[in-house]
Amino acid sequence: MAAVEPVLSPQNPRLKSVRAIRSGRNREDLLLEGLHLLEEALAAGFAPKWVLFDSDWSSAEKDKLQALVSPELDCRPCDPRLLREVSDLDSPPGLLAVAPRPSSDWQASVEQAAARKAWILVAAGVQDPGNTGAMVRVAAGLGARAFFALKGGASPWHPRALRGASGTTFRLPVADGLTEADLVACCRRNGVHIWATDAGGEDLRRVRRSEPVVLLLGEEGRGLTPYLEQSCQRKIGIVMDRGVESLNVATAAAVCAFVLGNSAPVEDS
């Protein structure tokens, strides 16, 4: 790895960029923390603008990074104290990278789901980025065609959501900021059914899917908006035991996703 000037000042533009992403002031870029996320992003064709790594890293750690990135990529050592200051982790991984946030043609994903009788997972107002990231991981691992986050909820590109997804955000189409009206109109136009989870819904164990579906999961406690409630063709529920009222939204997503993904034959992509 070629010798470059290390980052030693908290006023460095790269560190300012990290703070802007964390605060939400910069929505054009995404923040990758750790070698694993960087590796997943690179494998998916993402091109980071730059990488900062702990200047105290061992030769073996530097060699691993060098094997991942192209020689042209701006990789700079950084004072580990500064990396800790811009991280919200108890044990920072010692690497930060910034890449342009991708755009996604979400309407094309709905059209593809309709053509293949597939299903899409949608976070409808989920506020916690960690839960949103876990839902992305569920969607990627259990066969969803895509993952959407509606406007007003946590973005799947939030740094904590990216960590919660453990790199799987780069393995399927992901879109955020969709309005309820646009999603409902697109589903109706393409013959995609809208389902939602509901405590009083149809017993999930009896559910069979034969049509393309968008599955909505709302924030715990608040649930879906009246507009989305009225737009649903079907509501499904998870039967609980021992007086437990509900599951964490990401856990509920996993249970429902397993059923949806295995209740109907889906054409390979």
Would you give an account of this structure?
It is a single chain. The protein has 269 residues and is α/β, with parallel strands linked by helices. The chain has two domains: 17-100, Ribosomal protein L30/S12 (60s Ribosomal Protein L30, Chain: A, 2-Layer Sandwich); 106-262, SPOUT methyltransferase, trefoil knot domain (Alpha/beta knot). Helices cover 36% and strands 21% of the residues. The strands form two sheets. A six-stranded parallel sheet has the order 7-6-5-9-8-10, sandwiched between helices. Strand 5 (119-124), helix 6 and strand 6 (147-150) form a beta-alpha-beta unit. Helix 5 (106-116) packs parallel to helix 8 and helix 6 (129-141) runs parallel beside helix 7 (159-165). The chain is elongated and about 60 Å long. The two termini are 39 Å apart. 39% of the residues are buried. The model is unreliable at 265-269 (pLDDT under 50).
List keywords for this structure.
60s Ribosomal Protein L30, Chain: A; 10 helices; single chain; alpha/beta; 269 residues; Alpha/beta knot
Helix share bin: 25-40%
Instruction: Please indicate the percent range of residues in DSSP E strands (runs of 2 or more).
Output: 15-25%
Provide the domain count. Answer: 2
Ends distance: 39 Å
Task: Provide a count of the helices.
Answer: 10
Outline: elongated
* Sheet with the most strands, sense and barrel status: 6 strands, parallel
Order of helices and strands: HEHEHEHEHEHEHEHEEHEH
- Kindly identify the CATH topology of the largest domain: Alpha/beta knot
